[in-house]
Amino acid sequence: LPRSIRYIPVVIHVVATEAYQPISRAQVLQQLDVLNADFAGEGENRHKLLSEFESIASGVTIRFCLANVDPNGQPTEGITYTHTDIPNIALQSGEGGRIAIHYDQLGGKTGWPPDTYLNIWVGEYGDFLGSATFPGMAPYPEEIGVVVDIRHFGAIGDVATSGFYGRGHTLTHELGHFFGLKHTWGQGLDYYCDDSDD
Question: What is the predicted pLDDT for the residue at 52?
C-alpha cells in the first residue's frame, strides 16, 4: 500500500539587521523545495550514496509547507519579518539563558505554538550554520525548532554565492537533529558540517 504523506506547517521567522535584507518569499519557497526533495530521497546529493546502502535507501513521507493560518486563525503566508539591531542575535541570550532570536522582548521573534507549527528562525548566527532542538531537550518550549544562519538559508539570492553552504542543505541537516538524528561521527558542533555531503 502507498504510504500517505504527512504535511508539516512551517513558519519562517526572519530576524534581520539592516546589513541583511529580509530574504524573499521566492527564497523561502526555493528552500522548502530543496528540503522536500532531500526528505523524499530525491535531493541533489543522492548520487553520493554508497552502493551498499542503495537497497535500503528511501525517502520519508514528510513534506514541509508554509503555514496558511496563524495562531489566531487568520490567513498567513507563513513568513514573519522582524527588524533587529542586535548583531548575531542567535548567539545572544537574556535572563535564564534564553536565546534572544526566540523572543520578541529580547529583540527577536517569539515563535508560534510548537505543537501546531514547525518554527524556523533565520538570522545572524556568527560562525555557525545552524542548530536545532532535539526532541524533548529544548530548555524552554519557546525555543523548540530550528535556527539557520541567514547566510545559509536557501540557494538563491545573496546566499547562492556562499560556496558549499549556499545550496539549501543546512536546513535539511538541522531538521535531522530536530527529528532525533545524531551525527554519525559524534555530537560535535554543526559549525564543522559540510552541507555538500548531507
Answer: 78
